[in-house]
Specification:
Blueprint (H helix, E strand, L loop, with lengths): L8 E4 L5 H12 L3 E6 L2 H10 L4 E4 L5 H10 L5 E4 L14 H29 L3 E6 L12 H21 L4 E8 L5 H4 L2 H4 L1 H4 L9 H12 L10 E4 L7
Parallel strand pairs: 1-2, 1-4, 2-3, 4-5, 5-6, 6-7
Helix pairs in contact: 1-9, 3-4, 4-5
Length: 241
């Protein structure tokens, strides 16, 4: 069944590359008035060339106040995808404070900040909405040289559940997608640490970006209307171990 979002307004963070770019393009294709947020203007410019109907928003989520200001300007949003994420590879014992701050500021606080602004608008409109947070299977699996990243994703999982609890009475659904390894610029830096997971994956392959897009679109749509507070593993059965 084709997903249609005609008449809906969508916001995707981290929409310049990878998952976010593909999700933003898909939502626009499905009829949503789509806003693509990224810290990199060049990525937004090339996205705009590919999809002229997309609205672009150049914001760095590290700037809490500027993010709130710019996101507030776009008005009511029906569908929010918190995709933006960063990672810095380092061992626990050698991780400096600035790496911890940066990853928590984007991965957790950025998700919290944007969601807070958008959820308030959803409540005020009385129309409800759907929010999907991009997490990771690493929220449950320890990864060498990925201590802080994994911890931020564990925080996103719990935030998803807390948001679902508090926003449910306003007809706002909140879910997370937890993909295993999907090769992007972010994950390639951990290739040596991640490749052993392939042998543990019953389906014998890692997902593609399209698999992530399809799962996000499903959770945003009416067909998943009674699903909220879930952290959906997208891992080919890896999590059964």
């Amino acid at each position: 069944m084709a997903m249609l979002f005609d008449g809906k307004r969508a916001l995707v963070t981290g929409a310049g590359k990878g998952f976010g770019r593909a999700i933003a393009k898909k939502l626009a294709e499905c009829g949503a008035e789509t806003f693509a947020l990224s810290r990199t203007q060049a990525d937004l410019d090339s996205l705009k060339l590919e999809v002229p109907t997309i609205n672009i928003l150049n914001v760095d989520l590290l700037d809490w106040d500027k993010t709130r200001e710019e996101v507030s300007k776009i008005g009511h949003i029906d569908l929010l995808v918190n995709n933006a994420g960063v990672s810095k590879k380092s061992s626990f014992i050698n991780t400096p404070k600035e790496n911890i701050d940066m990853m928590f500021d984007v991965n957790f606080k950025g998700t919290f900040n944007v969601s807070q602004v958008i959820a308030k608008k959803m409540i005020d409109s009385g129309k409800g909405g759907s929010i999907v947070n991009l997490s990771s299977t690493m929220s449950e699996k320890a990864l060498t040289n990925g201590c802080v990243y994994s911890t931020t994703k564990s925080a996103v999982d719990m935030l998803t559940k807390c948001m679902a609890l508090e926003l449910g009475p306003h007809n706002i659904r909140v879910n997370a997608i937890n993909p295993t390894v999907v090769w992007t610029d972010l994950t390639l830096q951990y290739k040596d640490e991640l490749m052993p997971l392939l042998a543990l994956t019953p389906m014998g392959r890692f997902p593609e970006i399209e698999d992530v897009v399809n799962a996000v679109v499903f959770l945003l749509g009416d067909q998943s209307g009674m699903i909220s507070g879930e952290c959906l593993r997208l891992d080919g059965g890896l999590g059964v171990h």
